[in-house]
TrEMBL record:
<protein>
    <submittedName>
        <fullName>Gamma-glutamyltransferase family protein</fullName>
    </submittedName>
</protein>
<dbReference type="InterPro" id="IPR043137">
    <property type="entry name" value="GGT_ssub_C"/>
</dbReference>
<dbReference type="InterPro" id="IPR029055">
    <property type="entry name" value="Ntn_hydrolases_N"/>
</dbReference>
<dbReference type="InterPro" id="IPR043138">
    <property type="entry name" value="GGT_lsub"/>
</dbReference>
<dbReference type="InterPro" id="IPR052896">
    <property type="entry name" value="GGT-like_enzyme"/>
</dbReference>
<dbReference type="Pfam" id="PF01019">
    <property type="entry name" value="G_glu_transpept"/>
</dbReference>
Length: 535
């Protein structure tokens, strides 16, 4: 696999970036510049991550915003810390209410799938615990970008245009503020066209001045509450005021001499850990690229059906995280991987779908951070005059009362966004992540195996052609995925579908640190407008 990987066609010919004093990798060059400016002003990796995340809410509103959720893994002072800033369902959100409103399943757009957004609280919590610079200084660049405007990038335009047509299909007054805020002359902004939002700038300024409380208890909370009451939504100021992000212990699995870390459920990072754990149980891979791909796809499928069946809030999960990551259970699941593709079914461990960024500073601190609206701009709901585009995370809830992820008031849903981190022998190697809805755990498996098994550098790992399991034996592949490998996988029973576009295969960033020299090596996503800036 190692030699064949060198001959895979790549969507970019970018070289890996190297630095010694710091590094920022994001999906938008302007946001990466913001993070780097913060580092050069004396901020640490946490400060740079917060500033970049706030800037991304402006320059890539197609994927995230002030109304997003967020997760983070932070390495600081020789220890890993996890932050879960995904918000719960409103207290008024019940299965009975949804069914009374005529829904057999959770809607994807509109007011009803909006849960409490966690991103502003995540920024404030990270700053309070680990930041060096004043919180208002970190959001100031994003305020300026929103106020003065910036030139829309090509991939952002593509996603913007898709959302414009999606929301145009709704004949509902609640969607009008989205068009008032994000459309230019009745269309999505074009590549290179300037877009600005004074409302977005005003909201960011209020969040900066109050360390996030304006969003949850103040003027912005009042505006959100009033809009939801006017248009028949369920979210209320009391739901916002009750929210606090949760500090959590990351969970891990062993893979090729490294520890791979993810945020525990309700995040879906456990899927990636299960897949990597199965591959670890199967031992070292050979040199047959078809066998290697087949094993990785099958392990991912088996992990994913487990995750979709069991993952919800950790306290409500049965089986437990520990049972699902147990070595004997992963060995049992790995034993199901044979010569042919299988139609995966979840196991029983009880015996008897974004923007991602990575930052690092010269002191060894590193951050893996992700925030997301879920689907594109999210719910399509924008609070008038604020620039606040609200996520639609509640769409992942089930309205089946017997399902593990059944909707309930105050419950957090299964979450697709997952930051990752690598350590070895108790030392930080670095943050990694691949955004893109249900592609994310699959992207984690692919970049980790590319780096730790195939021995590719971060940029080469991100450049590799990707595959994406969707259901049953169906695997979608990118347009530049080698035909000979696709045909060989088809002979093993996989239903291979080659897509014309690469945007659905995730967009990642990676920064690795050599523990001996402190040198940083980073890669950025060729499938988006990304940048990795070294210092």
């Amino acid at each position: 696999m190692q030699h064949d990987a060198l001959y895979y066609p790549s969507p970019s010919r970018r070289m890996a970036a190297f630095g010694t004093r710091g590094m920022v990798a994001t999906s938008q060059p302007v946001a990466a510049q913001v993070g780097m400016q913060i580092l050069q002003k004396g901020g640490n990796a946490v400060d740079a991550a917060i500033a970049s995340a706030a800037a991304l809410s402006v320059v890539e509103p197609t994927s995230n915003g002030i109304g997003s959720d967020a997760f983070a893994i932070v390495w600081i002072d020789g220890k890993l810390h996890g932050l879960n800033a995904s918000g719960p369902a409103p207290q008024a959100a019940t299965i009975e209410t949804m069914k009374a409103l005529g829904h057999a399943n959770m809607p994807l757009h509109g007011l009803l799938p909006v849960t409490v957004p966690g991103a502003p609280a995540a920024w404030a919590a990270l700053s309070e615990r680990f930041g060096k610079l004043p919180f208002a200084d970190l959001l100031a660049p994003a305020v300026a970008l929103a106020e003065q405007g910036y030139a829309v990038t090509p991939v952002a335009h593509q996603m913007w245009d898709e959302s414009f047509h999606t929301y145009s299909a709704y004949d509902d007054a609640a969607f009008k503020p989205w068009f008032d805020t994000f459309a230019i002359e009745g269309r999505a902004p074009r590549p290179g066209e300037r877009w600005s939002s004074t409302g977005h700038a005003s909201s960011l300024r209020a969040i900066a001045e109050t360390k996030g409380r304006a969003f949850y208890e103040g003027e912005l909370a009042d505006k959100i509450d009033a809009f939801f009451r006017e248009h028949g939504g369920l979210l209320r100021k009391a739901d916002l005021a009750a929210f606090q992000p949760e500090w959590v212990e990351p969970i891990s699995t062993r893979y090729r001499g490294h520890d791979i870390w993810e945020i525990p459920p309700n995040g879906s990072g456990m899927i990636a850990l299960q897949a990597l754990g199965m591959l670890e149980q199967m031992g070292a891979e050979g040199r047959d690229p078809v066998e290697t791909l087949h094993r990785r796809i099958e392990a991912t499928k088996l992990a994913y059906v487990d995750g979709l069946n069991y993952i919800t809030e950790r306290d409500a999960m049965q089986p437990s995280v520990e049972q699902m990551l147990a070595g004997d259970y992963l060995a049992q699941r790995a034993g199901l991987i044979g010569e042919k593709a299988v139609d995966p079914v979840h196991g029983n461990p009880i015996m008897g779908g974004t923007v991602y960024l990575a930052t690092a500073d010269g002191e060894g601190n590193m951050v893996s951070f992700i925030q997301s609206n879920f689907h594109g701009f999210g719910s399509g709901i924008v609070i008038p005059g604020t620039g606040i585009s609200l996520q639609n995370r509640g769409a992942s809830f089930s309205l089946d009362a017997d399902h593990a992820n059944a909707l309930a008031p105050g419950k957090r849903t299964y979450h697709t966004i997952i930051p990752g981190f690598i350590t070895r022998d108790g030392q930080a190697m670095g943050p990694f992540g691949v955004m893109g809805g249900y592609m994310q755990p699959q992207g984690h498996v692919q970049v980790i195996t590319a780096m730790l098994e195939d021995r590719l550098n971060p940029q080469a790992a991100l450049d590799m052609p990707r595959w994406k399991w969707t259901k049953g034996k169906t695997v979608e592949v990118e347009p530049h995925f080698p035909d000979h490998l696709a045909q060989a996988l088809a002979r093993r029973g996989h239903h291979i579908v080659k897509l014309a576009d690469t945007i659905s295969f995730g967009r990642g960033q990676i920064i690795l640190r050599d523990p001996a020299s402190g040198v940083l090596c980073g890669g950025t996503e060729p499938r988006t407008d990304g940048a990795v800036l070294p210092w």
